[in-house]
Design goal:
295 residues; five-stranded mixed sheet; 16% strand; binds zinc ion; 12 helices
């Protein structure tokens, strides 16, 4: 790759776009049991790892993450049990090692545990061999701690490198949940070729972090009240329901797990559950269904 972008020839700019792209839609004609909508809740159990990844090793930042494991997770598991809603927990391996009982408890409670890096590393800052090594170590660690081999990945911070899809395929994973080319599931293409890997797309709109994150020493401040977030997420769900599609949501125990925000999550789940034909499913269950239902 040489020169400025405006100097690239067509094969160069087209090559960048084609490296990882959305292929055919995997939106199914129907959901299991005649459900009108699939609801895929996810929690990224990062806890202390984003601070550790940034070399923030002092107690203040680490305690903010520890809250997620100590307070957020028990509240979330109780709420999911109340609504009988299976969910997916994307957990960095170091977080799972710090909270071994938690990783196991997800599986025991009927939820899915999936990959979310080794220490919440930024993939695009790593060389390919290091990214690959961390991904394999993370998969082995989660399998050892939970007794189940992960079948999906969410790249930490949705930071997807030029090598991530190749590593995902080498790991034999069935799905990724880090990209944003659709509202509905789709198949990932690598250099124009179908990969068989399903993308369950995410969006910052359906993520608690951009609304609630706060950093004492920067201009990062929450700007949306919790009930404003509830209103956005209800609108997202209502539209998914009207279209007969997928409602996917990303949250973090150390962010959503606080009192005023759990009120919002509780009201959201009550709003969803009040509809006919709601299928709460883990990400892996959604993937299994769309693969089985594809024409
Ligand atoms: Zn994360």
């Amino acid at each position: 790759m040489t020169g400025h972008p405006w100097q690239w020839d067509e094969s160069t700019w087209r090559g960048h776009v084609e490296r990882v792209r959305a292929g055919r839609s995997l939106r199914p004609a129907s959901w299991p049991g005649g459900a009108k909508v699939a609801v895929a809740l996810s929690f990224d159990s990062d806890h202390e790892t984003p601070a550790l990844r940034d070399g923030e090793v002092l107690p203040g930042k680490l305690a903010q993450g520890e809250y997620g494991a100590r307070v957020g997770v028990p509240r979330i598991l109780a709420l999911l049990a109340e609504f009988q809603a299976p969910a997916t927990f994307f957990m960095p391996a170091v977080s799972a090692l710090l909270h071994e009982g938690e990783a196991k408890s997800y599986v025991v409670s009927g939820h899915e545990v999936a990959l979310h890096g080794w220490i919440h590393e930024r993939n695009t800052s790593l060389d390919p061999a290091t990214e690959r090594d961390l991904a394999f170590r993370a998969a082995d660690t989660l399998e050892r701690l939970t007794g189940t081999r992960p079948v999906g990945i969410r790249t930490p911070s949705w930071d997807f490198s030029a090598d991530t899809l190749r590593i995902t395929r080498e790991l034999g994973l069935r799905y990724d949940s880090s990209l944003m080319a659709d509202d509905e599931p789709y198949e990932l293409l690598a250099d124009g070729e179908p990969t068989g890997v399903v993308e369950l797309p995410v969006e910052w709109i359906r993520d608690d972090a951009p609304y609630f994150m706060m950093d004492r020493f920067s201009a990062l401040r929450p700007y949306t009240p919790p009930r404003g977030v509830l209103s956005i997420w209800k609108d997202e769900f209502d539209a998914a329901y009207a279209e007969g599609g997928l409602f996917q949501l990303t949250m973090h125990p150390h962010i959503i797990g606080h009192r005023s925000r759990m009120v919002v999550l509780t009201e959201l789940l009550a709003h969803i559950a009040a509809h006919d034909g709601v299928w709460f499913a883990t990400h892996a269950q959604v993937v299994d269904h769309v693969l089985a239902a594809r024409p």
